[in-house]
Design brief:
By secondary structure, the chain is of the alpha/beta class. Helix content is 38%, strand content 11%. It contains nine helices and five strands. Helix 5 packs across helix 9 and helix 6 packs across helix 7.
Length: 251
Amino acid sequence: MSRVGLIERFPALPWVVSYRTIAALDADLVDCRACPRLVAWREQVAHEKRAAFADQTYWGRPVPGFGPDDARVVILGLAPAAHGGNRTGRMFTGDQSGDVLFRALYDTGLASQPTVVSADDGTELYGVRMTAPVHCAPPQNKPTVAERDRCARWLDAELELLMPTLRSVVVLGAFGWQAGLRAFADLGWEVGRPRPKFAHGARTVIRRDHRELTVFASYHVSQHNTFTGRLTPDMLVEVLTAAAENAGLAR
């Protein structure tokens, strides 16, 4: 769609047409200071650090999405972890939740290696981009509704830039499910009423302009879910495999 066409489609969402590339979007995103509570927390954590990472320099800024800008699958989570993405500068890395996710991506043929430790370790994602409704680490991993809504501009713009190639969306957790469906509705996708309910293994098809996207749900890769067995590696691989197959990504 032309830039004029985008402006006509999204008159109430001017940020959606503000960027021509993912790189330009990410360059602005990492300088965002819109949420005072999140700014204070991410910077406090980056200063105080965890003892195990005392010799490392924390990122301490909003964490951009990670993955190619022509992805066919988007993985949508919650927010960066205080000592994970807030430390490494890469979404869903640097903690045990990220370890579970990247192992599953590797086993599904969507990542170049099973373990990710830093933003410069050479990891590649194949046809997949990872992002979140909230780009700063929140206290207790609980962003407020107002923080989610303030950060929505970045998700809206990122999803629209990915639309030419996007075929599947994998949502980790109920927070991401609600935020993701809301974003797609704002972008003109027919999401359905009432909104589809979150459950592990759930999926829904949304439509816009004769196009379809399939949205897949998984429990979040939080330590609570993985340590208790509520989410097993096989369960996560099953969802990722279904999303990859739907998007035409061969293993």
